[in-house]
Amino acid sequence: MQRDVVPKVSFEEFTIEWMPRGRSFNHHLHSQVEIADGADFVGRFERINDDWESIRAICGLSRNLHLQQDHRSSPPGDWRDHYTTGACKQVGKTYGEDLDAFGYSFVR
Question: Per the structure, how many domains does the chain have?
Answer without folding.
Answer: 1
